[in-house]
Design a protein that fits this description.
The chain is built from 17 helices and 14 strands. Strand 9 and strand 10 form a beta hairpin. The longest helix is centred in the first third of the chain and has 35 residues. The relative contact order is 0.07.
């Protein structure tokens, strides 16, 4: 370990003795700086920010060693200090130790004792350096992880070297995708400064909601978010978190859209798709980049459920696989969707809040859907009656249009 030591003493013979006794250390680049009082020592410290250890006498002109120690405390522990005092001068030695000196030696100086004391102090400095390095690494890790993980999870990962490596592993997760409808077209009409502020505010609000529910932001691409629950940390309730988070994000996005429209910005609605299942998750950014993400069919299905909202007229579309893992799930069935690239159908739901689920309109929808699912000829009339009373319900309108075009049942091929 390369260490520079500053010796502070007004005795003219001491510098020559130290130069003679510590030739090896001086040759190794350690003991090489001298000052003759506290004022000169402070000037040397200001000129050399690589000094780790100060060996200082107490009794010196202009500024004594005790006053120097007070000044060194202002450097917030940048240097360690060994104080030198006359034998028996315990009052000053005690004062020096109270002012932050690491150790002391007495005069006349026993150079063997001085060397042992310096070696002990250097070991302390080494440990201090290593601790500071670990703290700096943890702070850098926390700063990086905070972009992806909730503050609590980032703090835990940042302080755990093994966890921070985040190697790829297979996990059971819940995942969701969000996207703003027609955002690309909107970009062409906005000034860059307006677009930047709009997108930053939107994404800040959305990621804050994710972090509130201890989710992980795997990616942000433009206006779209990819979110994980159950990774990297184990979350037994990852499905519940995903659904509650999706509802909160939908509520925020709708309020944000209304505020934007009041400002004359035609922001589209946010569509959300969510699914649960196995995936391979980890840091796949190579040696240069941090890219914590997930791969697998579970991820692809969630993305396609997000896209399915456009055809269905919904804002949130979650799989039955996810809904079945949620305790007391509240939602209304959408149908059995055959997603793009798939041959088997997947039951999907539109999640609802408790208040929405208990509303009379939801009961009427569920009755109409039950008729559609059972093949009851009265399904068309039931949906027509429902849409007449709830014309804003685009999902019900979607089913009515299918029925009017001759479709039957709840199996729906997605475009």
């Amino acid at each position: 370990m390369s260490v520079r030591i500053l010796v502070v003493d007004d005795e003219p013979d001491l510098e020559a003795l130290i130069l003679q006794k510590f030739r090896r250390q001086i040759r190794d680049g350690a003991l090489s700086l001298f000052a003759h009082d506290g004022i000169e020592a402070l000037a040397v410290l200001d000129a050399h920010d690589d000094i780790d250890l100060v060996v200082s006498d107490i009794n010196m002109p202009r500024m004594d060693g005790l006053s120097l120690l007070e000044k060194l405390q202002e450097h917030e522990g940048r240097v360690s200090t060994i104080i030198v005092s006359a034998y028996g001068d315990m009052a000053n030695i005690r004062t020096a130790m109270n002012r932050g000196a690491f150790d002391f030696v007495t005069k006349p100086i026993d150079f063997g004792d001085l060397e042992a004391t310096i070696d002990k102090t250097l070991r302390h400095i080494k440990l201090l350096r290593e601790a500071r390095q670990r703290q700096a690494e943890a702070e850098r890790a926390h700063a990086s992880l905070s972009r992806y993980f909730s503050p609590n999870l980032a703090q835990r990962l940042g302080s755990d070297t093994a966890a921070a490596e985040l190697e790829g592993q297979r996990r059971e997760i819940a995942t969701l995708f969000t996207d703003i409808a027609n955002f690309t077209a909107l970009v062409e009409t906005l000034e860059p400064s307006t677009l930047g502020g709009l997108l930053n505010d939107y994404l800040t609000g959305m990621t804050d909601i994710v972090f509130t529910h201890d989710g992980t932001v795997a990616k942000i691409i433009g206006d779209a978010l990819h979110v994980l629950f159950g990774a990297p940390g184990e979350q037994a309730d990852h499905a519940d978190r995903a659904v509650v988070c999706a509802l909160a994000m939908d509520d925020y996005a709708e309020a944000f859209r209304a505020r934007s429209q009041n400002k004359g910005i035609a922001l589209g609605l946010t569509r959300i798709g969510a699914h649960a299942g196995p995936a391979i998750v980890g840091n796949f950014g190579g040696g240069r980049f941090f890219d914590y993400t997930a791969y697998g069919d579970t991820i692809n299905v969630a993305a396609r459920l997000e896209a399915a909202n456009k055809q269905l007229g919904t804002r949130i579309c979650v799989s039955a696989t996810l809904a079945d893992r949620v305790k007391d799930f509240r939602g209304r069935p959408i149908g059995d969707l055959v997603l793009r690239g798939k041959t088997e159908a997947l039951r999907a739901y539109e999640p609802l809040t408790e208040a929405q689920y208990q509303a009379p309109a939801t009961k009427a929808y569920l009755e109409a859907f039950a008729k559609l699912e059972s093949g009851d000829p009265g399904a068309m009339a039931a949906f027509a009656s429902y849409v007449g009373s709830q014309p804003q319900d685009q999902l019900a309108g979607f089913h009515l249009k299918r029925l009017l075009n001759g479709a039957k049942g709840i199996r729906i091929a997605m475009e």
